Amino acid sequence: MEYSHRYHAYPTQEVAAELDYHIDIHRQAYNYTLYEYENVDADDIGSAYKHHSRLPDWKDEFPVFSEVNSKALQRTVTRFYQNLTGLSEQKQNGRKVGKLNWKSPREFQSITYSQSGFELKNTSGRRATLWLSKIGDIKLRYHREIPDEAAIKEVTVKKETTGDWFISFGLETDEADLPEKPEVDSLNADNSVGVDLGILNYIHTSGGTTVDWIDLEDEYERLYREQRNLSRKERGSNNYENQRKAVAKVKRHIRQKVLDYQHKLTIWLVTEYDAVFVEDLNVAEMLQGDGNARNKQAAAWRQFITLLEYKGELYGTHVVQVEAAGTTKECATCGVETAKPIWVREHSCPSCGFKCNRDANAAMNVLQRGFAELGLGWPESTPVETVLPTDTTRVSAKRVVETGSPTLNEATPVAE
Fold first, then answer.
1. Of 84, 127, 205, 262, which residue has the fewest beta carbons closer than 10 angstroms?
2. Please, which residues have CB within 8 angstroms of residue 204's CB and are 6 or more apart in sequence?
3. pTM for this one?
């Protein structure tokens, strides 16, 4: 299993200048890869592996490429072909995309060391040191340890638009070292949960828990103020650059706040249940819809689902995505579909008479579809009416942030 840990880095001025220099050389290498891809005989290139064999000639013709680590240089060439593959996949999916362009200095702000050329040292405390070949030592805030069973496969150093430095370790853990997931046959409505990704609430579970949206109003108001100030600065001036960094810092704070919130929610879900079922949402389509687009984007649903999947592997929990279409319309009891405008918050089936909260009905449908996805039938002895809780509990976003995860026993019932 592959995943990553990210840390704030604090290079000295000399090392930061060296990093900037190396990043710019790698940017030139990326652009030269694009040039050769478009202008050199396809028999000599066409894949990252073939293109790697041209690097010795590069170093003879352009000695500057000898100043950077050879493995890191190979990784930059590979990066180009990964971007090319991503572009091709988007075209196959019917999206209108252009072609890869040369990278400007602002667009290329990271380098990756793969397999060798790095060493993590002095990890006994809250600080650690990363040594990079041809660059030197970089101090980092070691706020969480890398697991003993995880192997560091690559290291990426990135300079954010704020001017801050971050280091990401690409980790790999053998499947044998991961906790075993419960047997599929042992799953039932008590140790499994369906999760509806909501509009009025962040999530609503089939267990009757709603978790509120994280409040970002103050952060967005501050962002708008900083952006207005930026619009008044003369582009290219020192004041403009300082204000641009101020805007970037607010944006980063919003991203980090959402990510921290999602980490805590996903850890709660995978530690509380043996199986978590979630909707496979078309996020791009959701953002194109009318209304609430900013909140949907801030919610970062795809990021939430990705975190949930990898946490499931780390904690030994089944995480399954199910078809999202119709979960709101379909009755969880009899399956009859009933159209509901977005403002109708209660499900009332005209066929069987079953009534409950709209999102609770959707979450139960997600749970049932998850069971079907795993080849399990819905227990006939457990009718949906008894599975759905009679009382819904609400967990505030503030409690999630402060305590790390919602606690069902401490949740406050929703006022009728």
1. 127
2. 195, 196, 198, 210, 211, 357, 359, 360, 362, 363
3. 0.77
